[in-house]
Design goal:
Layout: H1 15-39, H2 46-71
Helix pairs in contact: 1-2
Protein name: DUF3077 domain-containing protein
Length: 80
């Protein structure tokens, strides 16, 4: 029997990898919420979907900020 939902990755090696995967999941969830709103724009739950989109966008920005902090060199070399 085929699984409908795949298992999450188990062998993430670093914080950077984890942040990248989390940002990808947030982006996908945001796209799904946008599609749901487009399919049913007059639905009573569309306001909740738009709120979810806003929260997911904010989450994605926070993850990107954390990723940038992880990727920043810890000891910047002095310029001569």
């Amino acid at each position: 029997m085929l699984k409908i939902v795949p298992d999450p990755p188990y062998n993430l090696h670093s914080l950077e990898d984890t942040l990248l995967v989390a940002a990808d999941y947030a982006l996908c969830a945001e796209a799904v919420a946008q599609q749901a709103v487009l399919m049913q724009p007059k639905s009573p739950v569309s306001v909740l979907m738009m709120t979810s989109m806003h929260e997911l966008e904010t989450l994605r920005r926070l993850l990107e900020s954390a990723l940038a902090q992880v990727q920043k060199p810890s000891d910047p070399q002095k310029l001569h």
